[in-house]
Amino acid sequence: MPWPSRKRDKGAVADKKEPDAKIAKTEEETLDQEEEESTKPPAGSSKSGWKNWKKTKESDSGGEESKITYCHWLLKSEPESRLEKGVDVKFSIDDLKAQPNQTTFWDGVRNYQARNFLRAMKLGQQAFFYHSNCKEPGIVGIVKIVKEAYPDHTQFDQKDPHYDSSSRKENPKWSMVDVQFVRMTKRFIPLSEIKAHHLAHKADGGPLKNMMLFTRQRLSIQPLTQEEFDFVLSLEEEKPH
Fold first, then answer.
1. Where is the signal peptide (predicted)?
2. pLDDT value of position 220
């Protein structure tokens, strides 16, 4: 494969522009039993016509059920060369565009929550392509899911940096999806700009107040609500600050 083992969740590295937030394309491997046993979210449907899943939890105050519906995603990948066990994990959106049919598999995820997000993805759902662990991290384009979750072959490859000797072919631990390039965003949307809106929305209750890019920074696979996706996408129409 031309770009081996390029999307990772193992070995968190903070984005250079946001050392306090520790945003990273790759996250620290988590073998936490609670995450391992967490259930796959049920499928649903959104007004956009895409299937989605709903995460349900008890509210801290009244015990009432609150539901968050996710139907879009944010995928982090490193656009700059970095060797991991002798393998360059660089994979930019230009690398994706250079692939046959501008399509590739999103392999190498080694975090249980991120894996569960991969397994929740549905055909046709769209995701932001996010450049991480680089000089200026941020959103550069849009991709779509063209194949739903199936076993990640790199877990069985002893030459791969993220070979997992504990995974069995009859019961694979790790999954991947196929994604296809849709388009570049009309402009680069930097992390710093998204963060400014997130902080403002935390104060006034805007759509980015709970965005996982800032609440679960290390996850390289992150869900987005329709409102989060729409707001971030609207930023491409604005002049950069």
1. none
2. 95
Instruction: Encode pLDDT of 191-204 as tens digits.
Output: 999 999 999 999 99
Distance of alpha carbon 157 from alpha carbon 97, whole angstroms: 26
Left if phi > 0, otherwise alpha if psi is -120 to 50, otherwise beta: which for 49? left
Phi, psi of 182 (to 5 degrees): -105, -60
Question: Can you list the domains of the chain with their CATH numbers?
Answer: 72-187+219-226 (3.10.590.10)
**Which residue shows structure tokens 């980015």?**
208
Question: Which residues are CB-contacts of 202 (< 8 A; sequence separation ≥ 6)?
Answer: 209
Give pLDDT tens digits for 188-238.
Answer: 999 999 999 999 999 999 999 999 999 999 999 999 999 999 999 999 998
Q: Find all residues with CB under 8 Å of 119, minimum gap 6, and list them.
A: 40, 149, 175
Instruction: Give me the residues paired with residue 195 across strands.
Output: none
Q: Can you spell out the DSSP letters for 97-165?
A: HTSGGGEEE-----BHHHHHHHHH--TT-EEEEEE-SSSS-EEEEEEEEEEEEEE-GGGG-TTSTT--T
Residues in the chain: 241
pLDDT tens digit sequence for 37-51:
443 443 433 333 333
The token pair that represents 202 in the structure block: 């935390």
